[in-house]
Write a structure and sequence with these properties.
single chain; about 120 residues; mainly alpha; 434 Repressor (Amino-terminal Domain); elongated
């Protein structure tokens, strides 16, 4: 699942809307909406993000949050480590290989480290 997919699912369920109902209103297939929610599809288009924002009638900070989540929700990333250290390349490759083996608390700790570094 991606952060965007998780948020869309959360919004949809909080309003008691089925995937099928939402898909019909957005003029997309239920299978595509399911794939977005589960992280089996890449980032949605800007236009679809705007449709979803309108569908849920969210504004300002909530709309901006959804747009930001879409930007960081590509499930198949390519990381260019050219020019970085061997350690950086190793880290990326090990994460690629083993991320599915990490426990949720381990992922949260790593995410916190990266987010803190980004905020500096």
């Amino acid at each position: 699942m991606t952060p965007f997919g998780e948020k869309v699912r959360e919004l949809r369920k909080a309003r008691g809307i089925s995937q099928k109902e939402m898909a019909v209103k957005l003029a997309i297939s239920p299978a595509y909406l399911s794939a977005l929610e589960h992280g089996h599809r890449g980032r949605p288009t800007w236009a679809l993000i705007q449709q979803i924002i309108s569908f849920f009638n969210i504004i300002w900070d909530d709309a901006e949050e959804l747009e930001t989540l879409a930007k960081i929700s590509h499930p198949k990333m390519v990381v260019d480590t050219a020019g970085l250290s061997a350690d950086a390349t190793e880290l990326v490759n090990l994460l690629n290989r083993d991320i599915g083996k990490l426990e949720a608390n381990q992922i949260r700790k790593m995410l916190e480290i990266v987010k803190n570094k980004s905020a500096q």
